[in-house]
């Protein structure tokens, strides 16, 4: 066997070994400090043998790896990194294409074009929209909001892309009270300021209160960007697009939607009522590496007005033909020039699942979330604080105790769940109280896995509440 084949096979063997055992193990045995100790050595002068490097990397890293790819990983909102996407990513790395333009990487550019078309079709967004393949929803929000910034200023005769923001007409940014922190990062990067926003009040689930919009709009003049949300990070709730988008559009706003995971509701007949009206927006940010299960480093910036998208992302936009008129250069829709060919893994996942497979995946995650919610809610002392309409659960323990005791019990239950190691989920603050947050976004989380997880959570809670002298009630 050639040296390359031996090396690649060893990489594949180690990868498969990890995936097969990740099923059983939910907490890393090494934390950051322990992992640092493993790798902490001076850079060697002589270098190391190829095979040794890969084996040392695997041996050193594995104890510090979370089982994010396993069926009972409910922490943050993290997809499963499906094996088909991983294999496509191996190839992407091995091919070493620079996906900046279609001359340097014809196949990569072509596959992005097709994957973009499939995504728009699946997510029921306007077919004329352009899609940038970015690192994730943070950069997707940034990219979409850059297009928004350029366009709302262009409408009042200001070229922000050429002339910057010094002396520009002021833009009002409307955003919901419970928007994701990364959207504020995007505003920060764009010179719009993360605090220089008008926050619309939200209801108990984190949805913008539509009744608050008319009053807010009356007070606004000039360029306006409104940021709505599909899938609140804790509750999974959606803004009411049907009620919010028309008055915003009537006011001349650019409407952007952060749909990092929630946009995928569009792909399922069972939950697409949640996102009704979302196609009326101007731009949408979503992730491939959450619900579509691609490996990490994969999100999509989707913009209805392709020219606005390109103006924001490339200096040459004005003289280049639109994609419909010529070949599509991937770099015209993203901040980077040289990059990995992200379209291959997206194409592979869409090809593998097909339309029905994506729908079944979304439905399975939502059904598993519902099953866990129903089981946990039946247990005395445990309450589900959100309407479980999608895949997110906000769980509170010690509901019969005073708030501070409930906070303490909730934190203890989370510690116990994590140390038991049967599943992983983490804590969050919701409406200033401690909660356990569960996100079901893994293709392997079947009803059996959900049942096992729910029983383990209940057992962990009973053990901490008994030892705290509360009984389990
Ligand atoms: C995860 C998430 C983001 C950020 O996405 P990344 O892929 O981590 O960059 C933004 N908004 C929401 C609602 C999210 O869930």
UniProtKB/TrEMBL annotation:
Cofactor: pyridoxal 5'-phosphate
Keywords for the protein's UniProt record, in alphabetical order: Aminotransferase, Decarboxylase, Lyase, Pyridoxal phosphate, Transferase
Pfam family, one: Pyridoxal_deC
Entry GO MF terms: carboxy-lyase activity; pyridoxal phosphate binding; transaminase activity
Superkingdom of the source species: Bacteria
UniProt xrefs under InterPro entries: Aromatic_deC (IPR010977), PyrdxlP-dep_de-COase (IPR002129), PyrdxlP-dep_Trfase (IPR015424), PyrdxlP-dep_Trfase_major (IPR015421), PyrdxlP-dep_Trfase_small (IPR015422)
Secretion signal, residue range per the UniProt entry: none
Sequence similarity: Belongs to the group II decarboxylase family.
Protein name: Aspartate aminotransferase family protein
Species of the source: Rhizobium phaseoli
């Amino acid at each position: 066997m050639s040296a390359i084949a031996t090396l690649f096979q060893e990489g594949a063997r180690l990868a498969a070994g990890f995936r097969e055992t990740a099923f059983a193990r939910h907490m890393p045995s090494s934390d950051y400090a322990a992992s640092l100790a493993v790798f902490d050595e001076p850079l060697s002068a002589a270098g190391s043998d190829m095979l040794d490097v890969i084996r040392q990397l695997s041996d050193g890293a594995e104890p510090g790896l979370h089982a994010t790819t396993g069926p009972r990983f409910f922490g943050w909102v993290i997809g499963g990194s499906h094996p088909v996407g991983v294999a496509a990513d191996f190839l992407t790395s091995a091919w070493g294409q620079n996906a900046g333009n279609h001359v340097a990487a014809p196949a990569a550019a072509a596959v992005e074009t097709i994957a973009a078309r499939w995504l728009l079709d699946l997510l029921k967004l306007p077919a004329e929209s352009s899609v940038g393949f970015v690192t994730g929803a943070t950069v997707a929000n940034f990219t979409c909001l850059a297009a928004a910034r350029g366009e709302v200023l262009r409408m009042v005769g200001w070229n922000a892309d050429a002339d910057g923001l010094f002396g520009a007409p002021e833009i009002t940014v409307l955003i919901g009270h419970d928007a994701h922190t990364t959207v504020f990062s995007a505003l920060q990067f764009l010179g719009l300021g993360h605090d220089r926003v008008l926050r619309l009040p939200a209801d108990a689930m984190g949805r913008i209160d539509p009744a608050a919009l008319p009053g807010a709009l009356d007070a606004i003049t000039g360029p306006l960007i409104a940021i709505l949300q599909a899938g609140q990070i804790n509750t999974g709730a959606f803004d009411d697009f049907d009620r919010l988008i028309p008055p915003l559009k009537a006011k001349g706003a650019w409407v952007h939607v952060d749909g990092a995971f929630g946009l995928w509701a569009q792909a399922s007949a069972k939950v697409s009522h949640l996102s009704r009206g979302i196609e009326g927006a101007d731009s949408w940010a979503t992730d491939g590496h959450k619900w579509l299960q691609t490996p990490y480093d994969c999100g999509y910036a989707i913009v209805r007005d392709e020219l606005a998208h390109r103006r924001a992302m490339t200096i040459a936009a004005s003289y280049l033909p639109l994609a419909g008129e010529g070949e599509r250069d991937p770099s015209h829709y993203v901040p980077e020039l040289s990059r990995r060919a992200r379209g291959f893994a997206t194409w592979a996942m869409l090809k593998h699942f097909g339309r029905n497979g994506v729908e079944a995946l979304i439905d399975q995650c939502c059904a598993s979330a519902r099953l866990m919610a129903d089981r946990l809610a039946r247990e005395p002392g445990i309450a589900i604080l959100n309407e479980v309409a999608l895949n997110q659960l906000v769980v509170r323990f010690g509901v019969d105790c005073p708030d501070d005791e409930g906070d303490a019990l909730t934190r203890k239950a989370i510690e116990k769940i994590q140390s038991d190691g049967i599943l992983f989920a983490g804590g969050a603050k919701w409406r200033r109280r401690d909660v356990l947050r569960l996100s079901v976004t893994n293709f392997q989380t079947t009803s059996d896995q959900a049942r096992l997880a729910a029983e383990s959570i209940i057992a962990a809670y009973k053990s901490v509440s008994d030892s705290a002298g509360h009984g389990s009630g």
